[in-house]
């Protein structure tokens, strides 16, 4: 192996990242692919009118909010035509643009403002402590929560209390959600379950239903791309490294085992600076905990837009039949869609 390869070929399983509360807070902004997301760049599917309706309503939500922040605010003569609730919840299947719309709302909001996943917010509370985390975000004009989790009742109720304190101080909250066990039909989020879990806040949220099909299906029909056998993947990883792309090379089983030793809030640091991820020996998983950790990892890889190169079975086939028939089916479907996209993508230009 050449010096260049040695300097840019890494192993994720040798990384043990750390992250502080301040670093988590500083990173509470939309992921790179939504850096320039706007209402104008959202493309509603004409076959699903609810997408255009949600877009129009969010524009109205943002407009009334800005009006309230101008001199006179809600006490001026020109009040919004409708009573504005302080929270909005985007309810829909994966791939219909909920995160795009959430990021678009964040971009037009006045600061201070925060955008992160449910995992990032719970990690922030864990790192700083509840009181300090509330104090840090107190006074925020907007808090956006992508992928609100209902899997852990303790974390869900912690976030309920957390958001309640922020909203009591005037913060507006926008959220999308992931639903847990058997709470939905095919590809559907369960708004009722979300609202029931945050019962203390439910009257403050307006639910916007967004129907549609996964937009990624348009370019990624079929399965995740298999890049040859293990040897071929190694050669590809070494060639990328030789060309200056910082590439990771790990065995699938080794990575799955390593993910169990790293808190999901740190997965983003696990792939920090990596241009491409190469995995050998992908196979079907039978451990649901391992599968859910892989889902969380793929979410961060997708956010960072890091291409995947893999051998073994197609990555979208790693979740076994029992998992696909269970309560986390929706999560697995989203992850499968993302793995198809990541193995079909192009390597970003090297700086």
From TrEMBL:
Statement: the UniProt record of this protein carries the keyword Magnesium: no
The GO biological-process annotations, alphabetized, read as: cell division
Spell out the PANTHER family in the cross-references: AFG1-LIKE ATPASE, ATPASE N2B
Pfam families hit by this protein: AFG1_ATPase
Please give the organism.
Agromyces soli
Q: Which InterPro entries match?
A: ATPase_AFG1-like, P-loop_NTPase
Q: Which residues cross the membrane?
A: none
Q: Which SUPFAM superfamilies match?
A: P-loop containing nucleoside triphosphate hydrolases
Q: This chain belongs to which protein, by name?
A: Cell division protein ZapE
Q: Recite the UniProt keywords alphabetically.
A: ATP-binding, Cell cycle, Cell division, Nucleotide-binding
Q: Which domain of life is it from?
A: Bacteria
Query: What NCBIfam families does the record point to?
Result: ZapE
